[in-house]
Amino acid sequence: MTLIIPFIEPPSCSAVGYDPIALAESMRKIVERDGRRRYYRFRGGKWYGGIATADCVGCNLRCIFCWSNVPRDNPSMGWKFYSPEEVYSNLRRIAERRRYRLLRISGNEPTICWDHLIRVLELVEEDGRFNFILETNGIIIGRDRSKAEDLSRFSRVHVRVSLKGTCEEEFSLLTGAKPEAFELQLMALRNLADYNVPAHPAAMLSFSSRENIKKLIERLKEIDEGYAAEFEEEYVFLYPHVKERLRKAGVVPITAYEPDKVPDELV
Ligand code: SF4
Q: What is the CB < 6 Å shell around ligand 1?
């Protein structure tokens, strides 16, 4: 049987880039149904010292270094829908079996199906035995302050906002989105700080000059001194499909790692 994999183009593609807010909404319509969301995998893993992970389908960015581009670019391929209760139950089972204290939704972007995510977080809170790392590109939280307010009612959530580069130009080069959307990533950190939601920034630095990194840290300090101190570095892992996409885009990383040679401090 031949499997036909449709590629979903971001809407509004143009010389100035697509709008990640519009893309989030068009993705949501594909990956969410009656409060359930499409996922492609549930797994344990070594990150954060051990974490149970639900890998969701659908993202509102198109990073050229993304390791999870098959579900991202093929959101309607037949991935199964899961209710928040099923997601939580799978995460809990993995965590109990492996004695983890941490849970997360990863793979693509958790926040594009907001109500589904909030229900999973409610289940984490009700159980009370686990903490949840919300890994996000922050665009949705930056666009709408009420999202940070929603998160502020949970005591077991820590948000990791993954910045795509250090500035508007790098963001646009790496994601293909309109440059000004980088500000939404920073705005997410501001909104989270305003509502006292535990959070820290990470940033993809594989393509950044030292000067740009310094400037980003100054911008983070202006939002919250703590963000500059807790700033986490991210680098490209050179999976074969990532290498190929970088080659096609003609973008050469300054710093990158082979997947089997990732330094311990990045795990
Ligand atoms: S935000 Fe994450 S999941 Fe989305 S394209 Fe970028 S790297 Fe991939």
A: 59, 61-63, 66, 68, 72, 108-109, 137
Q: pTM to 2 decimals?
A: 0.90
User: Which atom of ligand 1 lies at the shortest distance from residue 69's CA?
Assistant: 8
Low-confidence ranges of the chain (pLDDT < 50): 1-14
Domains of the chain in start order, with CATH, are 20-257 (3.20.20.70)
Phi, psi values for residue 200, rounded to 5°: -150, 155
Amino acid at position 46, single letter: K
β-bridge mates for residue 44, sequence order: 52
Instruction: Determine the pLDDT at residue 24.
Output: 98
Closest residue CA from atom 7 of ligand 1: 66
**Three-class DSSP category at 79:** coil
**Ligand 1 center from residue 109 Cα (angstroms):** 7
* Ligand 1 centroid from CA 224, angstroms: 25
3-state helix, strand, coil in the chain (%, to 5): 45, 20, 35
Half-sphere exposure of residue 76: CA atoms within 13 angstroms, side-chain side: 11
Contact (CB, 8 A) for 182 and 61: no
Best mutation site among 40, 59, 160 for ligand 1 pocket (most ligand atoms within 8 Å of CB): 59
| Residue owning the nearest CA to atom 3 of ligand 1 | 108
- pLDDT tens digit sequence for 233-259: 999 989 888 888 889 888 889 888 887
